[in-house]
Amino acid sequence: MSKNKNLVTQKSGLSTNVILTIVVVIVAVVVIGGVLMFSRGGADNNPSNSAGGANVVAAEILRKPDSNVLTSAPESRVTVVEFLDYQCPACHQYYEALTKQVEKDYAGKITFVARNFPLDVHPLARPAAQAAEAAALQGKFSEMYHALYDNYDAWALAADGQNVSTDEAKARGLFDQYAEQIGLDLDKFHQDMNSPQVNAKIDADTADGNKAGVQGTPTIFVNGKEFDAGNVKTYQELSNAFRSELDKELVK
Length: 252
Hints:
40% of the residues lie in helices and 12% in strands. The protein is α/β, with parallel strands linked by helices and 252 residues long. The protein has a single domain (7-250), classed as 3-Layer(aba) Sandwich (Glutaredoxin), CATH 3.40.30.10. The longest helix has 17 residues, at 89-105. The two termini are 35 Å apart.
């Protein structure tokens, strides 16, 4: 899919309040002239408001000593923190269109922190987070993080290729394959996935996300400020806006 095509997505968000009035919602999924609409999750995730407003959060909330880091910079002039859900379609889209390449292009220039925020609407989000955290205990977080997103369609989507999967047994089998491919001790991986330590880490990340005002995924902070892409319509424009923000912070 070309990044230059117009693209409208939805952020995966938290459950909405109990419906008080009957509402008829008509959702059109149109792929005409490169326009694609995803209707998953709750909150809106148009790239134009992908990360909300100008919310500023204290560093001690956004990053903890045990937070997983994808890239690090010696001076730590710029720190990016993403609260993510591994089964979130929008998170995967952001990974493909933005964060994967940013991780490569800004390696050594920024510190990129990934934190868990699994949503109830995604039944495999927590098992995937458990797999990532279990890999982290063997020093392989980055490898599992990439394996989960690079193979997203295989474990996260249902057979129709549109809806999220609920097949946890299949997903866990694939997680084992990824664990073997990146050289993990499989027995330790299984023990750690279901350990109190891993579950406490996921819960702590989620709690910090709530403190930071995270309403859905992905939510990204740059030096404590919630990233606001402005009125963009394509992922290329989103990427340009994000890179511009990073470059601005790097020269401060």
